Amino acid sequence: MISKERVYKALRKKEGNPDRVPIQFDLCRQLTETFGKKLGIVPDYALSYYEDLTYRISANEIRTRMGSDVVVVGGTVPSGYAPEPVTGSITMNEFGMHMMPTPLYVEVIKCPLENASALSDIENYRFPDSYAPGRFEKAKRDIDRFGKDFFVIGDVEISIFEMAWHLTGLEKYMISMMCEEPWLTLLDDRVEEWSTGLALQLVKAGVDAIWLGEDLGSQTSTLISPDDWRARFKPRHKRMIDRLRTENPDLIVIMHSDGAVAPLIDDFIEIGVDVYNPVQPNVAGSDPRELKDKYGSRISFFGGIDQQELLPSGDTDRIRNEIKERINILGKDRGYLLAPAHILQADVSPETIEAMISASFEFGGY
Question: The CATH number of the domain where 331 resides is what?
Answer without folding.
Answer: 3.20.20.210
